[in-house]
Amino acid sequence: MNIDMIVTDLDNTLLRSDKTISGYTRDVLNRCRARGVRVMFATARPPRTVRRFALGFEPDAIAYHNGALVMDGGRELCQAGISGADARRIMLRLSTELPGVTLSLEQGDQLYANFDTDIVWRGEDCVRTDFSDLPDLTVYKLIVGISSPEDIARIAPLLPDYLYAQPCENTLALIMNRRATKLGGIRDVAAAHGIPMERVAAFGDDYNDIDMLRACGVGVAVDNALPEVKAAADLLCADCDADGVAHWLETNVLGQHG
After folding, report:
1. Sign (positive or negative) of CA dihedral 17, 13, 237, 247
2. Within the chain, where are the H helices?
3. What's the CATH code, domain 5-79+180-257?
4. CATH architecture of the domain with residue range 84-177
5. Would you say 186 and 209 are in contact if contact means Cβ atoms under 8 Å apart?
6. What is the pLDDT of residues 76-86, one digit of tens each?
7. What is the pTM of this model?
8. What is the rounded CA–CA span in Å between residue 216 and residue 206?
9. β-pair partners for 170
10. Which end of the chain is more exposed for a tag (fewer CB within 10 A), N or C?
């Protein structure tokens, strides 16, 4: 199995359920990179929350906000956001159409919300707002509280054509630019380094990982992944609390280069 780049989701994939990675996983990632394999993270998280993990490992590239912001070697490779005016209009419309809905968004590296975010993101620094005075700056994603993935059908008709809504962990809908996907970020990074997609291995567990698992040369779902994600993957590995990604890499990537 010839792999030149590894791409992994963070939460419930590379990270254990306590949001840490083991020394073993860190060692495997470092050994992969020492063998010339590029390592990329792809996450729905913003930069500030990734920094808090203190993983002890710096990837070669990272797609934040589900691919709305892609950094490669410490420089911005690309971004695909939502205009501040559109974000403001959509949030006000959602507030009217879905009374009581929890709404938040990421602008710059700041979270804005219409509710007490400690309920879902304990300790997160947040600006409380009704979105009527949102600055006219690029927004990376809108976040809507939902009760099931089926709620997406109520949200999608309210969006302009350049945006899409995607469920996350069955409790949130992420609204983003159609160009902002993990897969799009992977393609941009791979192209920048001359790496064919068939030589990329991707790991994930949630709905927003499905496209990258299907499109990369090898798509691997952790054992704790959603059923739909497992169905989209080529292979399965052990769950996140058993260092599944690292064990797969040691066998299939380090073994390849050994």
Report:
1. negative
2. 23-34, 47-52, 84-97, 152-155, 182-192, 210-215, 227-232, 244-249, 255-257
3. 3.40.50.1000
4. 2-Layer Sandwich (3.30)
5. no
6. 999 999 999 99
7. 0.88
8. 16
9. none
10. C
